[in-house]
Amino acid sequence: MRFYVPEWDDAVDAHYDFEHDELSTLDRQERDLNYIWDIFEPETTPIDGVLISREQVEETDRKADRLAKYGVYDDPVLSVPNWLPTISDCGAWGYKSLPFPPYGNEEMLSFYKTLKVTVGVTIDHLVLGSGKEEGRLYLNERAFDGDMTKDDIPDAVTEVVDVMTDEWPEEWPAYVDEYEPTIRTDANSEIEPFTAADFQGEIESVLERLSQDPRAVYREDDAEFRYELTLRNAQEMYALYQRRDYPFRLMVAVQGWDSDSYARAAEEVLDIGYDYLGIGGVAGSPIHDVREIVKAVGKTVKAFERDHNTRVDSHVFGFAKTEGFETIGRSGMSSFDSASMLRSAWTGGGNYRLDHDERYDAIRVRYPSSSANIAESVEASLRSREVLVALRAYDAGGSIRDALNDWHSSSVDILPAVEHYLREHRHDNQFDERLLEVVEAAFREDFEYGRELQASFGGDLRRKLAKLLREDGPEDPVPFSQYSDLLKTADEIFDQFPHAPVLLNDSDIVTDYDRVWAIVREYATWVGDDDLLEEYQETLRERPWDRCDCPLCREESIDICIFRGNDRNRRRGFHNTRRFYDEFEEDLPKILVATKGTAKLSGFETVENYLRDEHPEFWEQTHDLPIAELGMLDASGVNEWWDDTPSMASFDPDRMAANIGEQAARYQYLFLQDDDGSIDDAVIEAAREKECAVETYSDPADLREQVLETCGENYVAGEDFLPHPPELDVDNLDILVIDQCSGSKDVPDNAPVFDADETLQFSREDLLARDNVPGIAARDLYTGRQQANVRDAVRRLRSNGHDVDRYFISAGFGLVGENDYLPPYEVTFSSMNVSEIRDRSGKLYIQEDLQKVLDESDYDVVFFTLSKDYYTSIDVDKMVQRVKADRIGVVFNRELVEDQFDNIESIPARTEDAKRHGTIVIGLKGLYMKNFAKQVDNLETIRPETIEELCRYVDDGPNQTTLPQEKS
Ligand SMILES: [Zn+2]
Predict the structure, then answer these.
(1) Matching InterPro entries, A to Z (predicted)?
(2) Per-residue pLDDT tens for 46-59?
(3) CATH number for domain 589-716, candidates 3.30.70, 3.40.50, 1.20.120, 3.30.460
(4) 19-41 exposure pattern, b = at least 16 Cβ within 10 A, e = fewer
(5) Which residues surround ligand 1, an ion (CB under 5 A)?
C-alpha cells in the first residue's frame, strides 16, 4: 500500500535562518530547496511516491522547460530520488469547466515519456452532474472581451442551463473534431466577441444557435458525455500504448456519479486489459460517498482478479482520511494520494498534528501587514520579535525575562550602526545594481548587523533602505535626510521597547508557562487573534513539539509549532505528513510478499507470467491479497509483480542481501515463500537489520493466512477478506443486547437515591453495603418503555431456544449485567453535553468493559439499542468494529456506520418510523426487537438486511398497533 503526495512546489529553504527569519539567499533560483524527500532519510520519508500533474508542470514555462529537459528524477530542482515512484496525470480539476480535456492521447503519452515518470494516467474528465434542467452550456471566456460580459447573460438562460465559462485553449486536440467540428477553428483566427443578440430569444432557439457557434458547446446530458469520453480515452490510449514500447506503466482513470457507474466503468476498463486503475473525481466528496465508490470498484476488481487469476492495482485519487483506511484496505486498493496533511499545516485550525484526534493550534506570530506604514511595520516587527524570543526561551527552559532583556540590549546598537554604515558606504559600487534583491543582498552581507536589522526592525525597513541605496549615487546623491527620516521613525518606535518584560511583573505570574502565556496572550490580542487564546494555552501547556521525534521537531523544536511564513509552515506540513504516515502504517501495515526468482525467468515476458506458471500455488494464494505488495526477488532486489522480467537476472546472494536490506527498510513485514530453503540467510538478516520482520513459508496457504492476519482482525473472517454481509443460521442464535438505563426506575419509597458525584466516588458494592440501601437487579430497576419492550423480546427469544445476554449502559455505574444489583441512583447521559459524556464514560470505563464483553465472546448478533447520547458514551462508530466481520451488529439511526461495514445494519427509528408503527420514538427500538423476536424463527438464515426487515415488519391486519400487548 502506497501513499503519494501531489507535487505542488512544496519546498523549503534548506538553509533557512530561523534566528533572523532570513532566507539563505534572496534569489529563489539560487536557493537550495528541500522537498519532503530531502528532509527525511529514505527509510523514514513519509511518502511512497509523488503525483505530478501536467497542470502543475506547466504552471510556469521555466518549470515546464526544465522538467522536459531533465525529467522528474534528474531535474536539479525537484530531483525526486530514484526509489520514489512517480505518477503523472493531466490534472482533471484544472480543466473541469472546459467542454473537453485540452490534451490528446498521443500527446499525453509522449508527455509522460519526456517526464520519465513511473506511471502515466489516461485522460479523464470529471463527471460533474448533468447541469440544470436543460443541461450544460460551455462558453469561451475569450469571447467576453467586447461589450458583453458574463453577467449580461440573461437569467432566462442561466436559470435553465448550467453555464460554464472558461478560457479555451487556442487549439483543441484533433479528436474534438468528431464531436464539435465548429469549435476547432484555426489558432490564429480572431474570436468574435459575444453580443446580447447571441442570447436573445426562446431558450430552445438560443441553445440551438449556440450549439453551432464556435465559441460555445451545448450538451443536454453532460455527465454521460464526460463518462463516455473518459472511457473512450481509456480505450484509445491503451491501443496507442500497446503499439510502442513506452518506459512507464499506464494507469486508467475512471469516473462516475455513483458507486454503480464507477463499478461499470471499472468493469469496462478491466476488459480492455488495464492492470492499474485509478478512481478519479472523489476528492472533496463526503466520506461515506467515497467509501461506497471505493468498495464498489474494489469488489469489481477483486472479482476480476479471481476470474482471471491475475492481479490489478488500484489507486484512489485525492483521498487520504484516517477514517477511510479500513475501506481502502479491505477494498484492496494499492495506493492513494492526498495533500491535505501537508496543507492542514496552514489551512483551518489545529495546524500541528500529533494524530487524527490530537491537534494543536500553532502560535501565529505575524508579519506586518503589507499596507502598514513604516512606523506600523517596525512596531509589528519588534513585537513579533519579542514573542519569538520569549517562545524560544520558553522552549529551551531558559529565563524568558533574561532572553528579552538580552535581545533588547543587543538591538540597541543596530540603528546607530546603520546610520554610521550608510554615511560611509552609501555610494559603494556594490549598490549600483538594477535589481533591488541584489542590492538588498549586498547590504545584508556587507553590513555587520544586516540580518539583525531585519530580525528586529523588519524586512520593510531594510528594503526601503536598500531602495535608497539603489537610487543613491555620487553624481546624483539622495539627500541623507531620506535615510535619517526612516531611521528616526524606527528609533522612536524602538524607544517604547522592551515592551514585554513589564507584562511579567504581575504577582500571579510564577511559572515559565505563566510568563510565556502573559506575553503570547497580550500579543495575540494585539494582533487580533484573541479568538485563539484557549487553543494557544493548550499548545503552550502541552508542548506537543517535545513529543515528536521527527527530524523537523528535533531540529527546529518550537519553530515547527509557530505559524509564520513558508519555512515554518511547510516544515510543519512535512511533520504533519510524517505523523499521518505513522497512523497509516499502524492501520495498514507495510507488507511485502515475495518469492525468489529462478533461471527460468528468462523464458517469460513479465513477472506475473513467471509467477503464475512457475510458482502456481504461490500465485494462487497471493494474487488477490489486499494491502500487501507482491513481487519476485533477484539480485537487484524486488521486481514488482507487474514488471517486465529483468533482461539479465542474477541471484548473487551478496547483491541481493544489499538491495533487499535497503528496500526492506521501508516495510514492516516481509513474507517470503521459500520452498526449498534457497533464500540465502544473508538476505533475511539484511532485512531484519532494518527492523523489518521477516518470515519464510514453505506452504503458500500458511503465508496467505499470516498476511491476512497481519492486515487486521477483520481480514481473516469468513472465506476471504472481502467485505461481504454475513449470513447466519437461525438455530440457537447467540444474541447480545446492549441496552441503556432509563429515567424511570422501580425504586422503593424512602430509599436513598445517589447522584452523579456519589456514583462516581463510590463503587456499587460500597453503596450497597450501606444501611437501608436496597439492591435491585438491573433487569428490574429500569422501567422505561423501551426497557419493557426489550425485556419482552429477550424473554421470547430465550423461550424459543436462543441464548441472550443483556447488558445495560448505566450513566451511574457503567456497564452492568442484567442480573447485577444496583442501588437507586439518578444520573443520565441525556442531560450532558458530548464532552461531559465522554469524560464520565471514561471514568466509568464503559468502553473498556464493553470491548471486553465483545472480544471475549462470540455473539452472532449484537443489538445496540441505545439513544444518541449513549452511543456517544460507547463511541459506537468504533465499537461496532469489535463485532466480528462474519457476525452482525445492529444499530439505530447510524446510516454512516452501516455504509462503512457490510456486517453492520442501521435501522431507522425516527418519528416517521414510529408513526408507521403507531407508536412514539421512545420504545420504538424495543418494539423493533419484539418484532424481530416474533419473526426470526420463521426463517432459516438471516443477513443484516433481513434483520431490518423483521424489525420493521408491520402487520397489515387491523390490530397492528396492539402488537406490543401480545403476550410473550
Ligand atoms: Zn515533528
Answers:
(1) TGT-like_sf
(2) 999 999 999 999 99
(3) 3.40.50
(4) ebbbbeebeeeebebbbbbebbe
(5) 548, 550, 553, 575
